[in-house]
Amino acid sequence: MATSALNQLEKQQYRIVGGTGAVKLCHWMRQKLIYGRPCYKEEFYGVESHKCLQMTPSVNICNFRCLFCWRFHGMTGFEGSECLEPEALLEGCIREQRLLVSGFKGDSRCDPGMWEEARLPNQVAISLSGEPTLYPHLGEFIGLCERRGMTTFLVTNGSVPKAIENLSTLPTQLYVTVAAPNRELFERLCVPQSSRAWDSLKETLALLPSLDTRVVVRHTLVDGWNLGWEDEYAKLDEIADPTFIEPKGYVFVGDSRSRMTMANMPSHSKVREFSKRIAERMSLELIMEREDSRVVLLGEKGSRPRIALR
């Protein structure tokens, strides 16, 4: 990794593991440890925020340049980069997580028992930065997490369907981001580095119904860009046939502030109205919502998102 990229990431409080892995505490880890406020994923899906390891195997490696992404955009490829084996990657990430949470021990607002649990994560969010399906040992990494009794949430842009199809172990939950309703908007907003990216995303969506795991399609909504087009989004969602659909509003944070404005953050009411229109077209129901996170969860009538995770 170039020194400039490394310095930028460290300035943003990433802890680098090997050449391409990284850990960073999310906002909700701090909220849970200090104030007892969980991330919406705890309320929606049952994973505990303070036990979550937010990491990536590909911190500076991505094939998109999404305008709404809060991550650092100094991306490269795996060529010439050290690529850790799964065990070294997981051990390194847990080690860095423990260092990152160490400072909370001295805060009187932090429950000691919760702090101890934060040092022993049981949930791995494979997201954070970069595109994780570009990591060549992803299936083995997920399998290692599972053998250690850890659940895994994999977040992908859906651009590498073969990588998902060939996973030796599937994640507990697979998130696929669908941030545009059509090719033209997709190419302007997500800025893919391949002319086939839209076709690849549609291939991924067609693959999803065959996967034996929980699937969530996320629509990242950017006001002034991709709100609306509910008929087109619904057609894509029908192809994917996911367990849940999660419309979520863009947040004006991180590096996205150099590309977007505060006006691009949709209100929760706009996210909710969009969600209701998708639900009508898909014969789904609004199951849960979280206003402070500008997020809504859609699913079949009577579905229970907080099912026990394997």
Poorly predicted segments? none
Structural class: alpha/beta
The named CATH superfamily? Aldolase class I
Radius of gyration: 18 Å
Mean pLDDT: 91
Distance between the termini: 36 Å
CATH fold descriptor: TIM Barrel
* Proportion of helical residues: 25-40%
- Tally the structural domains: 1
User: What is the spatial order of strands in the main beta sheet?
Assistant: 1-2-3-4-5-6-7-8-10-9
Reported for the largest beta sheet, the result is: 10 strands, mixed
The count of DSSP E runs of length 2 or more, i.e. the number of strands, is 10
Sum up the structure in keywords.
310 residues; alpha/beta; TIM Barrel; ten-stranded mixed β-sheet; 16% strand; globular
How would you briefly describe this protein structure?
The protein is 34% helix and 16% strand. By secondary structure, the protein is an alpha/beta fold. Helix 7 (161-165) links the parallel strand 5 (151-156) and strand 6.
Indicate the topology:
Layout: H1 3-11, E1 15-17, E2 21-23, H2 27-35, H3 40-45, E3 52-56, H4 86-101, H5 112-118, E4 123-126, H6 138-147, E5 151-156, H7 161-165, E6 173-177, H8 183-189, H9 197-207, E7 214-221, H10 230-240, E8 244-249, H11 268-282, E9 285-290, E10 295-299
Parallel strand pairs: 3-4, 4-5, 5-6, 6-7, 7-8
Antiparallel strand pairs: 1-2, 2-3, 8-10, 9-10
Helix pairs in contact: 4-6, 9-10, 10-11
If you had to describe this structure to a student in words, what would you say it looks like?
There is one protein chain. With 310 residues, the chain is an alpha/beta fold. The chain has a single domain (3-299), classed as Alpha-Beta Barrel (TIM Barrel). The protein is 34% helix and 16% strand. The chain contains 11 helices and 10 strands. It has helices at residues 3-11, 27-35, 40-45, 86-101, 112-118, 138-147, 161-165, 183-189, 197-207, 230-240, 268-282; strands at residues 15-17, 21-23, 52-56, 123-126, 151-156, 173-177, 214-221, 244-249, 285-290, 295-299. It has a 10-stranded mixed β-sheet, sandwiched between helices. A hairpin with a 4-residue loop joins strand 9 (285-290) and strand 10. Helix 4 (86-101) crosses helix 6 (138-147), helix 9 (197-207) packs across helix 10 and helix 10 (230-240) crosses helix 11 (268-282). The radius of gyration is 18 Å and the shape is globular. 45% of the residues are buried. The model has no long low-confidence stretch (mean pLDDT 91).
